[in-house]
Structures are given as C-alpha cells and as structure tokens.
Amino acid sequence: MPSLDPPAKIVASAADDMRQKIVYAALTLGPNLKLGEKITDIDRIYLVKDPVDVAVTRLKRVLFPWMVQHFCGSPTKTKAICIFEMFLEGKSKNDQNYSRLMGRMNTVRQDSELAKSMSWFKRVSTSSGRKVDANIFDDMYKIHMLGSSADEVHTTIHQEMFRQILKTPARKSFSSEVSAAVRQIRQTCEAAGFPLKKLGLSDSFA
User: Is residue 110 part of a domain?
Assistant: First the structure.
C-alpha cells in the first residue's frame, strides 16, 4: 500500500542505505520533467534555468532534512552555520519564521567568531555558555516537511518535486559540471562535520 506521507517526508525518513540512490535520482533530470498539473509558472521556476542549477537545487532540497536530523543529534555552531548558509540564507526577511531564525543565527555566528579569538583553554572552559540550540531549525524543518498554508502554490511545487525524485530512475553518470558542483557540496559538508554516508554522498563524483 503506498505511503500517505508527503513526498518530502518520505525522502527525509529514508534509511541510510537508500540515500545515495535518492541523491542520484535528485541529480537525474528527466527530459519531460513535470511538477504538477496545477502549476502554471513551473517552467519559469524550475525548468527555464541552467540544468546544473536545477540539479543542485534538487540535491540541496534532499540534503536539508538529513543534515538537520544529524545536527539535532550532534549540534555544533559550525554545522548550524553550514546548514543556514547552504539552504536558508537570503530568504525573505518578511517571513516570520525566517526572521526569527536569522536573529538566532546572528548570535551563533558571533559566538563562533568569539570562540576563534580565544585561547584553547578559555574556549573549552567557556564553551557551555555558547552551545547552539539543537532545535534552532525546527520551524524551517516543519515547513520543509509539510509546507506553509501561506504559500500553497510553493508547497505544491515543493512536494511534487520530491514526488518526481522518488519516481525517477537514478543514474550514476553526470556531466562534469554537475559532478564538480556536487564535489564542492561534499567538501563543504565534510568540513563542517557531517558524515557523508548519512547524506548519501559516499560517491566521490570524480
């Protein structure tokens, strides 16, 4: 019996051994990709773009929940900054959830810079006062899973994109441009402390 969960939630809850396949599918763009009959602006939003940008956008949408899940179990300022800069920075400041998150992230960044300026002993002895909240991304994660009632069109597009990814036969061969973009994302995630296997990024994309 098919799952009744939203497609974004199905991807987010994928077992570790399925994640690489989902990554491949996210990077595989079908020639007749459609993202929902009700979407009139989909060509402008998703398809009339550079194919590399489309592939990277799809990959990042897949990685976001997996990175947040790992962060919640092992929160660090470096991981929080990585997630924010990779997925969330530059969103509309008029969004209440994002505005609140941005304020909290400013504090995380300040604490991170402060720690870098300290001696090793002082940094260790004062670290408890600069811990990042493991729940800092909860609101954005919930929107990613279920969408927002304030923007139903975007929610439909978002969920349909994940539905298409789940239906796409994955391939393992990509253009040099896509492979280079994925390698950069791998490097960024690994440097921030994320385990690549948990993100479906074990492949070196060489």
Answer: no
